[in-house]
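User: Please predict the structure of the protein below. I'd like the answer in structure-token form so I can feed it into my own downstream comparison script.

Assistant: Understood. Taking the following sequence of 127 residues as input:
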Amino acid sequence: MITELLVCASLAAVDGDTVKCLPSGQNMRLLGEGVPFVSGIDTPEIGSHAKCIKERKLAVIAKGRLKELLAEKGLRVEWSGAIDKTPSHRPLVNIYRANGQEIGQMLLWEGFAREWILGHRNDWCGE
């Protein structure tokens, strides 16, 4: 996979798997070391996009954990070269901590995210 380093003065959590690059304001989608359009990570939808109260609550928790991780020093943002197919055309990125751990993978390991696979929708309400 071809990657490009992105430079952001700071990063802000939009939801559990979307990050805003400041000062440009560009939203970016976390890949979690997945393959663009094949695999990645998924977190619960926030606000009115949530399908139930449980999903909304889980989304706030996931966003909070991502916010904590983004506050660390020495983060490296790598763009995969792909953009998502939503109207906002978010770059698909991996964000690495100073110790080399990828933030999306951390969210998976810690239970704040689930694996996303093409054609599969995660149900955050039924479990």
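That's the full token string. The helical segments are 53-70, 103-109.
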